[in-house]
Amino acid sequence: TKNSTSVANVEALTKKLEELEMNDEQRARLEQFLTQKELVGEMATEDFEKMGELGSGNGGVVWKVMHKPTDLVMARKLIHLEIKPAVRNQIIRELKVLHECNSPYIVGFYGAFYNDGEISICMEYMDGGSLDLILKNARRIPERILGRISVAVLRGLSYLREKHSIMHR
Question: Record's Pfam families (predicted)?
Answer without folding.
Answer: Pkinase (PF00069)
